């Protein structure tokens, strides 16, 4: 069984920039495929991952509102790039730049999702970490998960609007080193 309630240790893991973490899920977000790097970096045996929700690696300091945006996009048949902090089985964490896409069948219906994840740029993480901390702080002010996601989403939209950016533009401004950062 996959362990639950893993306490973050603050230790960060990294992997080589030429490596890619790959996973596939069904429409409900249950893992159907993980590559060897996913297994290695997550610290879970493959047998404990397949069939489990992808959020088994969700770090508690990752904003729910970012995952809300991600799920809204992919459920609508769109791709998304997002910075994500994941939690390994040993409590360490690792940052990725995730590219998540829907998988379609021959009739054009979504049958699952595919994610490729690369290492995240350290400079980008400075800005994204500050934003995500603000989002998490706002989300934690709300007792229900739904209210938390909505509140975090409103704050994210507000900060991006003030910077004149969409989330995609924000991600790529960080990735390309142009850092048109949202409010500090």
UniProtKB/TrEMBL annotation:
<dbReference type="InterPro" id="IPR013655">
    <property type="entry name" value="PAS_fold_3"/>
</dbReference>
<feature type="domain" description="PAS">
    <location>
        <begin position="26"/>
        <end position="61"/>
    </location>
</feature>
<dbReference type="InterPro" id="IPR000014">
    <property type="entry name" value="PAS"/>
</dbReference>
<protein>
    <submittedName>
        <fullName>PAS domain-containing protein</fullName>
    </submittedName>
</protein>
<dbReference type="Pfam" id="PF08447">
    <property type="entry name" value="PAS_3"/>
</dbReference>
């Amino acid at each position: 069984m996959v362990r639950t309630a893993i306490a973050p240790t603050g230790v960060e893991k990294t992997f080589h920039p030429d490596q890619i973490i790959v996973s596939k899920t069904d429409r409900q977000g249950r893992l159907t495929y993980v590559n060897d790097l996913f297994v290695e970096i997550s610290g879970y045996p493959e047998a404990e991952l397949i069939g489990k929700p992808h959020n088994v690696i969700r770090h508690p300091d990752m904003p729910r509102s970012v995952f809300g945006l991600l799920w809204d996009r992919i459920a609508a048949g769109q791709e998304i790039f997002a910075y994500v902090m994941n939690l390994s089985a040993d409590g360490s964490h690792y940052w990725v730049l995730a590219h998540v896409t829907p998988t379609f069948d021959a009739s054009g219906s979504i049958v699952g999702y595919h994610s490729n994840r690369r290492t995240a740029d350290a400079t980008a993480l400075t800005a994204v970490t500050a934003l995500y901390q603000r989002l998490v702080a706002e989300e934690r002010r709300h007792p229900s998960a739904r209210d938390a996601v909505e509140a975090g989403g409103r704050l994210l939209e507000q900060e991006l609007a003030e910077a004149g950016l969409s989330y995609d533009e924000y991600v790529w401004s960080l990735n390309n080193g142009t850092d048109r950062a949202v409010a500090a």
